[in-house]
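Q: I have 166 residues here and want to know how they pack in 3D. Can you give me a structure?
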Amino acid sequence: MFELDTPWWELVVRAALVFCALLLMVRVSGRRTIGQFTPFDLLVVMLLSEAVTGSLTAGEESVSGGLILAATLVCLNMGAAWLTSRSKIMSDALDGTAVLLGRNGKIFKDVLKKCRLSDTEVSEALREADCKLEEMGHVYLEADGNITIQKKEASHSDDEKGTNKR
């Protein structure tokens, strides 16, 4: 039950390799994988875990082996968090940056396609923000996959028009 069939260091190396490969795959696949799961996305994530099980364990079925793998993955995650908190370059590489999807009531269709987003998703975000397209100042796809809407700021002339009405 506790006796390892595989050397402990091999389990650590396997876990590190699989962690890095999956991190790269998730980053390449886009922001929606992280932020906005569809049923298909959730299925892919679940199947990914099953697909890499053999690569991680090398047939190791002991409790000790499972604990070594879990500890390695947690340490790698903590290491990535430590790096991203101390380096903007690492933060941008691992977490990503916001992408401008539109400005001043205009949605950038080419950027939507590049980010694999539909007009429907942006329209939904506008409705959630209680913002009409003509009121929209900026629309961003955040690094976590959420869409953020910023309304245009009311100009002083609009304020004056509103107060001067009698």
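Q: Anything worth noting?
A: Residues 156-166 have pLDDT under 50 and may be disordered. The chain has nine helices and four strands.
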